[in-house]
Amino acid sequence: MTNDTTPHINIHDALLLDSDPESIVRYYQSWAATYDSDVTANYFGVQLIADLVQQHVQSSSTLSDIAASALTIMDVGCGTGLLGKPLHAMGYRHIDGVDLSAEMLAKAGESGFFRRLFEGVDIHQPLPAELAGAYDVAVCLGVFTPGHVLPEALYQLVGMTRPGGLTVISTRVPYYDTTDYQQVSDRIEAEGVAVLRKRYMNAPYRDDGDAHYWVYERL
Ligand SMILES: C[S@@+](CC[C@H](N)C(=O)[O-])C[C@H]1O[C@@H](n2cnc3c(N)ncnc32)[C@H](O)[C@@H]1O
After folding, report:
1. Is 6's pLDDT higher than 60?
2. Is 102 part of any domain?
3. Residue 65 C-alpha to ligand 1 middle, in angstroms?
4. How far apart are the C-alpha atoms of 108 and 81, rounded to whole Å?
5. Could you tell me the distance, in angstroms and rounded to a whole number, from the CA of residue 62 to the centre of ligand 1?
């Protein structure tokens, strides 16, 4: 859906970003102020991916014994922090976030749901040492989407989790169809970095299209 007042919502505009960090920073600099009101009404993926996190944590042999209030979660490309609200409502208290955009992160900070926020982290680049292997869960919504991150970023996400940790990701359907995401996913398993625990295809995401959802466990 796109109209004169919400030009950013157009997925075709996002394609023009071409995964270039400076273009992405500029794009979200001008969208941060209205992002939440532009997207929240029809953003089904927020609750859906939070539910997947909870469901898979509870069935994980490594994580199920950890109290929700102690479980560490990294929200990768957290933007304005929309995921913070449902995760906080589930009892999670150690929620951190990274993003390229200072303006989006400032909104996440205002939400009050995040413990720590890391600005200017480009998920295409090697991770800051303090983020490597540091989390029980990495979650990433709305970032594996046209014009944004490349499929290889999957390695960086999984790399934020500890052995037995979970990585939960959405990929928009057109993104999956036009990138080598599946090959990267297959490779990460073949290399013994992580195992794909579950894949949900063509599930609700937003009113302008569905997404696939992926749950990996770090080996
Ligand atoms: C569509 S928004 C999604 C924000 C939030 N996860 C949500 O679902 O509302 C995409 C976010 O990904 C961030 N992003 C894009 N490329 C990135 C990269 N290479 N490294 C870190 N963050 C990135 C953008 O700055 C933006 O905040």
Report:
1. no
2. yes
3. 31
4. 4
5. 28
